[in-house]
Amino acid sequence: MAPTSRASASDRLNQITKHIDSKPFLELNTPFSTERSARFEDERGNTIKRHTPPAKKAEPPVQKQVPEPPKKMSQQAPHPALLIPGPIEFDDEVLTSMSHYRQVSSESHVGQPFVNCFSEVLQNLRKLFQTTDPASQPFVISGSGTLGWDQVAANLVEPGDEVLVLHTGYFADSFTDCFETYGVKAMQLKAPIGDRPQLDEVEKALKEKNYKAITVTHVDTSTGVLSEIKALSELVHRVSPETLVIVDGVCSVGSEEIRFDDWKLDAVLTASQKGIGCPAGLSIMMVSGRAIERFKARKTRPTSYFGSWKNWLPIMQNYEAKKASYFATPSPQLIHALDTSLKQILSRPLDQRFADHKAASQKVKKAVADLGLKQLASKPENQANGMTAIYLPEGITPPEVLPTLLKKGVIFAGGLHKEIATKYIRFGHMGVSVTDSSRPDITRAIESLKDVIVEVQKNKS
């Protein structure tokens, strides 16, 4: 058959347009699609049709190269259930999304597809923190939750300022050390191990001195102590309204209720690898408009370069507005994972998520009591819903318990509070291990803990 005459430019454009409109984007980029293998052009641009029976050309192409992923996958290699207070178990879809649609390893951090993804992440963080105030600002920066401390110390207070740190465990000591690194004077208000500073004590401290900020660890990972944020913020706004309310929510966001607007919070810092259910590597913050104005009114430059909001604020604002921007390279893989995790979290009411964590927590705490064991947080109002810190029986230490738990397929964490580290272990129950009813993680961990305590006691008798 003689070659056909060369088509006009407009005709060829129309053919391409029809092809794109009628075929999925994924198919268009598959090298074995019917259209792409059924026609060629000679060196002059004339179309040469392959001798393919007409009936076959009308058939839809068979896609075998890139199968459609199932909604629920179980692709993780067998492993012990990770039930420490972070990192936690991750959903398969979250892990798979890190490979960027399962086709390429990475992408441009200033390309529009990634910018659109980052924009959705920032918008969904507003929903997770429950803020509709356009003056508030989410931040997502590569780093651990610890970077949140640096951001607070470098941007919201200045050298010589005084802050009040409410102490419920190890992480208040660390936050204090961070402040002092930046030349900020930090005073701690401490409570006995397993307890939290009482509101009357906080009120007394606020009346004695003018503090630029007050910090509270929502859930201290070293003790499992839960702080009351709503009542605390109400107190601060009543007694010392110029004091910023800063919440360390690394071990609470995603498993404990936080109402950023309603509770009039100024900053909540967290990390990706705990209740949010995304691999470690992202420092996440929500900051109020009032705190942003405090930052803008600084007399001195921020005392960090990488953590400076002078550098990051326009970047976050641009990304949320779907505009490419650059200061330091983000991790596209982790942003995709966070995007997937946030969409999973927000796919059902947040109240239901928090209720699920509370129910799982009560189940764990009842099992602990039935074993005759005690929690570090002895008062019910002090007990976190995403983790439990458990005193071991007298004479039993973590090295005698944790390896045996591991053999049974469960990973708990040892003690972290330096004064009692050899006396207790920590059980994390948050994220997908709680919200996915098909997972046996929590029940299995409780049964394993019972068996191990009995075994160790029997061996010692």
UniProtKB/TrEMBL annotation:
Pfam families assigned: Aminotran_5
Taxonomy, superkingdom: Eukaryota
Residue ranges that the Swiss-Prot or TrEMBL entry lists as coiled coil: none
SUPFAM superfamilies according to UniProt: PLP-dependent transferases
Record key words, sorted: Aminotransferase, Pyridoxal phosphate, Transferase
Start-end of Polar residues biased regions: 1-17
UniProt-listed Gene3D superfamilies: Aspartate Aminotransferase, domain 1, Type I PLP-dependent aspartate aminotransferase-like (Major domain)
PANTHER family linked to this entry: ALANINE--GLYOXYLATE AMINOTRANSFERASE 1, AMINOTRANSFERASE CLASS V
Protein name according to UniProt: alanine--glyoxylate transaminase
